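Example 9 (inverse folding). The structure is encoded as follows.
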């Protein structure tokens, strides 16, 4: 969490919602944490996304999940949610990243 500019209020509502709601910390644990500890605890939400797809993998995904309006190119009806579910499964199966 970086330094705030003078005159800018801190977003306590959002930080408390993340710590108490999303991370399910007790109020005692939340208020005992340093900003760095809270940042590291929240960092797990952005890990495990895996590397970006390569050119061939992206081309295959584009053929399998064409954009709306290009159904005639794939020969089937477009279902955008299939792509979202596929990417989410791939991200979950790639495991957490390790820092070097």
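The amino acid assigned to each position is listed next.
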């Amino acid at each position: 969490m970086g330094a705030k500019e003078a005159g800018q209020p801190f977003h306590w509502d959002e930080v408390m919602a993340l710590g108490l709601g999303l991370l399910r910390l007790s109020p005692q644990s939340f208020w005992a944490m340093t900003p760095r500890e809270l940042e590291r605890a929240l960092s797990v939400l952005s890990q495990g996304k895996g590397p970006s797809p390569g050119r061939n993998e992206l081309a295959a995904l584009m053929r399998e999940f064409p954009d709306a309006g290009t159904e005639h190119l794939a020969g089937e009806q477009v279902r955008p949610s299939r792509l979202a579910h596929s990417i989410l499964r791939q991200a979950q199966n790639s495991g957490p990243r390790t820092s070097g």
